TrEMBL record:
The lineage of its organism: Eukaryota, Metazoa, Chordata, Craniata, Vertebrata. It comes from Nothobranchius pienaari. SUPFAM superfamilies: Cadherin-like. The gene is Nfu_g_1_022347. It is a single-pass membrane protein. One of its GO terms (molecular function) is calcium ion binding. This is Cadherin domain-containing protein.
Length: 112
């Protein structure tokens, strides 16, 4: 389905975009098994193709934006919980952390 063979050179050719997340979801290892059939003489070769993840998905929050109401009487050090971001990518390509633009009023404490 995804790959074919150039019978003159023996090269494996990608024929269709491989969506790793659609194929293997959150699995760390993603292996696509293919059978290559050669004729005259008939030969069947089994090939395992290891699909590498690329950073092709942006982290997403459940809501498009987050609105917090912080009263002026809030104590220094008061904390407010943020939603978790979800990323379809895995490993180093998945969301690694959050950051907040530097300002004099807020700081972000990240707990994993």
């Amino acid at each position: 389905k995804y790959c074919g063979v150039n019978y003159n050179t023996g090269e494996l050719i990608v024929q269709e975009r491989i969506d790793r997340e659609g194929l293997c979801s959150k699995k760390v290892s993603c292996v696509m098994k293919q059978e290559l059939v050669l004729e005259n003489p008939l030969e069947i070769h089994r090939v395992n193709i290891h699909v590498q993840d690329i950073n092709d998905n942006s982290p997403q929050f459940k809501e498009g934006s987050l609105k917090l109401e912080i009263h002026e009487s809030a104590d220094k050090g008061a904390t407010f919980l943020l939603d978790e971001a979800h990323d379809a990518d895995v490993g180093d390509n998945a969301v690694q952390g959050y950051s907040l633009q530097q300002n004099d009023y807020f700081k972000l404490n990240v707990k994993s």
